[in-house]
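#lab-general

N.A. 3:47 PM
ok so I finally got the sequence cleaned up, no stray characters, all 157 residues accounted for. can someone with queue access submit it? mine expired

B.Y. 3:52 PM
send it over

N.A. 3:53 PM
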Amino acid sequence: MGTRRQSREAAVQILYQRDLNPHEALDDAVARFWKEQDYPDDIRAFAEKLARGALEKRDAVDEQIKRVTENWELERIAAVDRNILRLAIHEMMFCDDIPPVVSINEAVDIAKKFSTKESGKFVNGILDRIRKELPRPARTAGPREPESGGSAPTAAS
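B.Y. 4:20 PM
back already:
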């Protein structure tokens, strides 16, 4: 397993832990997680970057989830799936160095590992809807394409 995959799995676990304990200070939650885990520094650094970024942009990310999951309350989505979605959508919207299809593939595989057998399909469906509206290429890293006035998700969404 690659270091980025391990980092993403750790980030999902941090997000999940924080979701279940929302009043715990983020630094305390992260410290408690690492106290119980044995990961190399490079995995820890990328996992923390992803988890902190997803939490920082959580409102914008959650708005995207709510927008594409019509007739579903965010709280009705399984906590594991909800946090896998948060991580992947954060990457897709705010991490230009990661191609969106990589974020989707990683999220689907993590969902299959940590959640139910149907979660991979669910996660893929949600993320694919968001990917189609992104103002940047799906298969390459790099800068966003110029705004065209469409309904693509933005950081302000």
